Each structure stands twice: as C-alpha cells, then as structure tokens.
From TrEMBL:
The lineage of its organism: Eukaryota, Viridiplantae, Streptophyta, Embryophyta, Tracheophyta. Signal peptide: none annotated. It comes from the Eukaryota. It comes from Triticum aestivum. One of its GO terms (molecular function) is oxidoreductase activity, acting on the CH-OH group of donors, NAD or NADP as acceptor. InterPro entries: Lactate_DH/Glyco_Ohase_4_C. This is Malate dehydrogenase.
Length: 40
C-alpha cells in the first residue's frame, strides 16, 4: 500500500499493511533487512 507514513523520513512510502472491513488496520513496517539492504 502506498500511503502517508512515518516508517521513513519520506512523506509517502509503500508498506505492507493488514486490511480489515474498514480499510487499513495495521501497518506491518519494514521487517528484517538483508545484509545487502543494510550495506546499500
């Protein structure tokens, strides 16, 4: 989901979300980064 976010310093960010009857119920965050992502 591309949405307003506080996950990063960017105002909008694509994040995994849990959807319910009324839309987004939970933003799941970034999860674990790989070593490649950490080095980037």
């Amino acid at each position: 989901s591309l949405r307003q976010s506080t996950v990063t310093e960017l105002p909008f960010f694509a994040s995994k979300v849990r959807l319910g009857k009324n839309g987004v119920e939970e933003v799941l965050g970034l999860g674990q980064l790989t070593q490649f992502e950490k080095d980037g």
